[in-house]
Amino acid sequence: MSETVFAKIIRGEIPCHRVYEDEHVLSFLDVGPLSSGHTLVIPKEPAVTLDELSDESSAAIGRVLPRICRAVMQATGASAYNVLQNNGTDAHQAVMHVHFHIIPKMDGKGLGIGWDALDIDHEQAAKLVELIASKL
């Protein structure tokens, strides 16, 4: 994994507005927020994409992500929010270190999403389910 801004933040070389920290996870405010309270949650483990992350780090994020979401909602007064997690440049990942965005929706600010849904091919879906399950 290449050196990232998140690695420097974890090591304390770049300051951040820390929201939460434990042995496996660091959470801090995004410096380019889409709305007030836009918070990042990152593993301290240096993995580029979610599929590369260890079970231990994944579990640690899973334990604290809902708690941080609740805190962001209470602190901002937002009634809705998005949790965004991108994997790879084709999926709009800009920092090559696993990270989750908690983005409150309020006053017209927050994450905007286009959703160009396709119709499912049920025959193809049945084959795909078998293939995915065989890889687990």
Comma- or semicolon-separated keywords:
5 strands; 5-stranded antiparallel sheet; 136 residues; 30% helix; HIT family, subunit A; alpha+beta
Tell me what you see in this structure.
The protein has one domain (5-134): 2-Layer Sandwich (HIT family, subunit A). It is globular, with a radius of gyration of 17 Å. 18% of the residues are buried. The chain has three helices and five strands. It has 136 residues and is an alpha+beta fold. It has helices at residues 5-10, 55-76, 122-134, and strands at 18-21, 25-29, 39-43, 80-84, 100-105. Strand 1 (18-21) and strand 2 form a beta hairpin. Strands 1-2-3-5-4 form a five-stranded antiparallel sheet, with helices on one face. The mean pLDDT is 94.
